[in-house]
Design brief:
Layout: H1 15-33, E1 40-41, E2 57-62, E3 72-77, E4 80-85, E5 90-95, E6 102-107, E7 119-126, E8 134-141, E9 146-152, E10 155-162, E11 169-174, E12 199-205, E13 213-219, E14 222-229, E15 247-253, E16 261-272, E17 281-286, E18 293-295, E19 302-309, E20 325-334, E21 340-352, E22 356-358, E23 365-368, E24 373-376, E25 379-387, E26 396-397, E27 410-411, E28 416-417, E29 419-426, E30 431-441
């Protein structure tokens, strides 16, 4: 017999289909209530309870095949080293035995959470065997906000860090207090977690200021839910300042330890589930139409437009190094017929001379249109040529798929911004050039 809607007696589904729907419904109920049916399985829903049917949009991915991939800033203190392990395809973060020996590895980019879309984060690692005074952390966090797993001595925690009160606080939940599968052998999975073996740590974030964060480990191909930080209907403000955060790995001696220790950093990814749409504030700067930039010496690259995030070194001292700013277009035009130009986009270059100006009181960007030289070449991200014999200028649109590749970067550990420069060289002395750069500020 077919089932019916009671309102209009319209046939719904066959008995087999109804049982299938009831099974899915039961699974989703367990997910929402923390029941055992949602603790281990394929996790058919994202953090907003929607079926995972759309393709995720990759905001970031990191692996180390041939070298340290250049996507991370590294801070070391004392006897410490971050070394590429070619045989294992990972980074060995090794510290000695002295008090305060430390390594921090943090992404040079902050990842854009979009309200209403689940953010899925995964990190893989092998922690050093537990020992007294040794602390290790892996997760999606910075100095002030975020979520991570921590092994301190023999104690394992899931941690929520927040700046909401005005000072950084941490909410540590010990393994025995996890509200999902405690991974002590007694939970639904029957698995006992060995945190010093290779692990895949996952979380999905429903922010909107006060959503739920679910955390766990992927073992035997199953997403195991270990703990949920719930906030809606429980708190009186946001639980963290922002869900747009970097990834981070840390290992540190809090006091002297008995032997050296190594945390193995493997792979990481950040995914926006259900795609991503840019909806930030569009801005642009460029050379004056009456005052082109002069490339004095032929064959020499000059920084014609340089941008960076505002840092504490800016005037006025407003730190915006965690802002998300994406370059969307470039335009170049030579003034005199017969000049040929080679343009390049450089990241992490360093310029000298000129004056840094704010792009506006509400902007996270400052720019320099009058720099004179490059003291550090940086990394070339794109290059091309144009000539003033052409009928049109050198307008360059950056493909949507590549937008986050052109995001302004920084060293979040030190709070310093990296420069993003459009540099240009000409075939003749004293060639004049007009240049503009468009960008979108996602963080507002």
């Amino acid at each position: 017999m077919p089932e019916y809607f009671p309102e209009n007696n319209t046939p719904l589904k066959t008995d087999t289909e109804v049982r299938s729907l009831q099974k899915i419904s039961s699974s989703l109920d367990n997910l929402s209530t923390g029941g055992t049916g949602g603790i281990i399985g394929s996790f058919p829903t994202d953090s907003f309870g929607r079926l995972r049917v759309s393709e995720p949009f990759t905001l970031f991915d990191s692996s180390h095949r041939y070298r340290d991939n250049g996507l991370w800033s590294t801070y070391t203190s004392g006897t410490a080293s971050a070394t590429f392990n070619a045989s294992q395809g990972l980074m060995d973060l090794t510290i000695g035995t002295a008090n305060n020996d430390e390594i921090i590895r943090e992404t040079t980019k902050v990842f854009s959470y979009q309200p209403g879309k689940s953010l899925l984060v995964m990190n893989t690692f092998v922690m050093s065997p537990a020992k007294t005074n040794l602390r290790q952390r892996v997760g999606y966090y910075g100095d002030d906000n975020g979520i991570y797993v921590e092994l301190y001595g023999n104690a394992l925690y899931l941690v929520e860090r927040s700046l909401v009160t005005g000072s950084m606080t941490e909410r540590l939940v010990a393994q025995a207090d996890w509200n999902g599968d405690k991974l002590d052998g007694t939970g639904p999975s029957g698995i006992t977690l060995d945190i010093t073996k290779a692990q895949i740590f996952w979380m999905d974030i429903e922010w909107l200021g006060l959503g739920t964060v679910r955390l766990g480990f992927i073992i035997n191909g199953q997403f195991i839910l270990c703990h949920s930080f719930h906030h809606a209907n429980l708190i009186t403000s946001t639980y963290i300042t922002t869900a747009s955060l970097p990834l981070r790995y840390e290992i540190r001696n809090i006091e002297v330890t008995s032997s050296s220790s190594t945390l193995k950093q493997i792979c990481s990814t950040v995914l926006s589930e259900g795609g991503y749409e840019l909806r930030g504030a569009q801005q642009a700067v460029g050379t004056s139409v009456t005052s082109p930039f002069r490339l004095t010496t032929a064959g020499t690259f000059y920084p014609v437009v340089t941008l960076r995030l505002k840092s504490s070194a800016s005037t006025p001292p407003v730190d915006r190094t965690d802002a998300i700013v994406i370059i969307t277009a470039l335009s170049l035009l030579g003034k005199t017929t017969g000049d040929t130009f080679n343009w390049q986009v450089r990241n992490a270059s360093i310029s000298s001379g000129g004056t840094w100006l704010s792009a506006g009181a509400d902007s996270a960007v400052e720019y320099n249109l009058t720099a004179t030289t490059l003291t550090t070449a940086g990394r070339t991200m794109a290059s091309g040529y144009f000539s003033t014999t052409q009928q049109t200028g050198g307008g360059i649109d950056i493909l949507k798929e590549a937008l986050f590749a052109n995001q302004l970067e920084r060293n979040g550990i030190l709070g310093t911004a990296f420069e993003f420069s459009v540099v240009c060289a000409a075939n003749n002395n004293n060639a004049d050039l007009f240049t503009s750069v468009d960008w979108e500020e996602v963080s507002r």
